[in-house]
Amino acid sequence: MTVMKRVRDTLLIGIIWAFAWAPVAILAGLVIDPDNSMDEMWFMIGALPGFLCGVVFAVLSGLAGGGRSRTTAPPRAALLGVLSGVIVGILPFLVGESQVAMPEWLFAVLVIAAFALMSAASAVVTSMWARRRSRLIAPPA
Length: 141
Known about the structure:
This protein is mostly helical. The protein has helices spanning 3-32, 42-65, 74-95, 104-137.
């Protein structure tokens, strides 16, 4: 597989995850801020971490596979998804401070757990889709 194809596939996974995570963030925004007083862009609050988690997952999956296989088994994908969610979930707390009413450590745990859960679910779905797709387009033996 060429480098450009790997980059394209990695970015494609990130984009798909971004569009999958955005509606979840919009729904969360409806619960957290029903009167829309916070002026948050809920679409982007879901899309950006979704994209980053998707890209990190794709890179980790490629590294874990060693280039041998284009697909990852669902349990391994879930583990790599959790890892990508934790990596991306930690980033905001390394670069800035939160301004929420709850203790920062609790907010960090909630954010990282949400990213890890969403990333694991996205990774499993991605893995199942890739396995199905590879069976459909595999050349006959």
